[in-house]
Design goal:
Layout: E1 2-6, H1 13-21, E2 24-28, H2 34-44, E3 48-51, H3 58-62, E4 70-73, H4 83-88, E5 92-95, H5 101-117, H6 119-128, H7 130-134, E6 146-150, H8 154-165, E7 169-173, E8 187-188, H9 192-198, E9 201-204, H10 218-223, E10 229-232, H11 241-249, E11 255-258, E12 278-280, H12 289-307
Parallel strand pairs: 1-2, 1-3, 3-4, 4-5, 6-7, 6-9, 7-8, 9-10, 10-11, 11-12
Length: 346
């Protein structure tokens, strides 16, 4: 019988049932941290492990774990795992790239609507004067406005499709994707500065890499419209937090909507949580009940596939973004939202 260690705080009975049905003994680990996981690996010598938010460096995989053959990373992000070190030490790495894509896209749409409707401000005003809040004209309809998407993969594409259904103009920047592979109706933009200058809302959907870590800084904010909002439901490390706070405080942009911040969990006293114009939710995009179930099943399928000697369905890719081909082609068949005074069209 094989042993699988689940160190993730989030697991389901269906995961345990699946593993046990496939000749695996399940052990629930300690708190999820590097040292706790390393301790459990030494103690139980598992054949497989499922992790969530833990940062696992080369030292974890270089320790004496003779049985460990596979690691499954909960969700689509894997920047905390030294994948090359794992594979160098005989550990295959899998993940769940589409398990939570729909839920992250939906949380992105929530933040988009929250920004457009200025919910926090209007709701606070409501306690002072209901009709003043109702008639303050501090909120807007999304249709006819422009959403700029940075990174148009599994999640960015789903956000694009949902925004198109709301009759928004949608622009997307993704230099590693051919124009023909973008969702229908999306304007392919190859100049990031152009996307920033012309979008009313900018939403980030890229992985954290050596290229993208901290890439959204004050230089980026200064290229946006003063009425625009930045949305980040991807990874907190993509945005320079101090620059986001400054950009909002100084009116360089209208606001920020974040479902993730760097260095989570957040201290309740952290400035970003108390900056008017910045609205933060607790990284809930990938944690809906459905997403958790879907991701969990993809994790255990990957574990069993590797332990059975099969090629995993969702191996973590080893991508060198500095050497990836980039594309400059565009399309001219993108959607144009109707004029806001075209009553019948809207």
């Amino acid at each position: 019988m094989r042993t699988v260690l689940i160190s993730s705080k989030t697991y389901s009975e269906s995961q345990i049932e699946y593993l046990e049905a496939h000749d695996c003994r399940v052990i629930l680990g300690q708190r999820e941290g590097r040292e706790e996981i390393l301790s459990d690996l030494m103690k139980y010598q598992p054949d497989g492990i499922i992790v969530s938010e833990a940062k696992l460096d080369a030292g974890v995989f270089e320790a004496k774990n003779p049985n460990l053959k596979v690691l499954a990373r909960r969700g689509a992000g894997y920047d905390g795992i030294d994948v090359r070190a794992a594979r160098k030490n005989g550990v295959e790495c899998t993940y769940a790239p589409i398990g939570n894509s729909a839920s992250v896209a939906e949380v992105t749409m929530f933040h988009l609507l929250h920004a457009a409707l200025n919910v926090s401000y209007v709701r606070s005003l409501m306690y002072e004067d209901f009709y003043k809040a109702k008639q303050c004209k501090a909120y807007e309809t999304l249709c006819t406005y422009t959403l700029g998407i940075i990174g148009c993969g599994n999640i960015g594409s789903r956000v694009a499709e949902r925004a198109r259904a709301m009759k928004m103009n949608v622009k997307a920047y993704d230099p590693y994707k051919k124009a023909a592979d973008f969702p229908d109706g999306v304007e392919v933009v190859r100049d990031l500065s152009e996307l920033l200058r012309t979008s009313d809302f900018v939403s980030i959907h890229t992985p954290v890499t050596d290229i993208t870590k901290g890439f959204f800084n004050m230089e980026m904010f200064r290229q946006m419209k003063p009425t625009a909002y930045l949305i980040n439901a991807a990874r907190g490390a993509l945005v320079v937090e101090e620059d986001a706070i400054k950009a909002v405080k100084e009116g360089i942009i209208a606001g920020c909507e974040f479902d993730t911040c760097a260095n989570e969990p957040l201290d309740p006293q952290r400035e970003i949580l108390h900056t008017p114009g910045i609205y933060v939710t607790p990284h809930m995009g990938g944690s809906t009940r459905m997403a958790t179930e879907r991701v969990g099943i993809m994790d255990v399928i990957g574990i069993v596939e590797v332990l059975d000697g099969k090629k995993p369905s969702w191996p973590i890719p080893d991508i060198d973004y500095s050497s990836l081909p980039t594309y400059t082609d565009v399309r001219d068949d993108y959607y144009h939202a109707p004029d806001k005074y075209d009553i019948e069209a809207l």
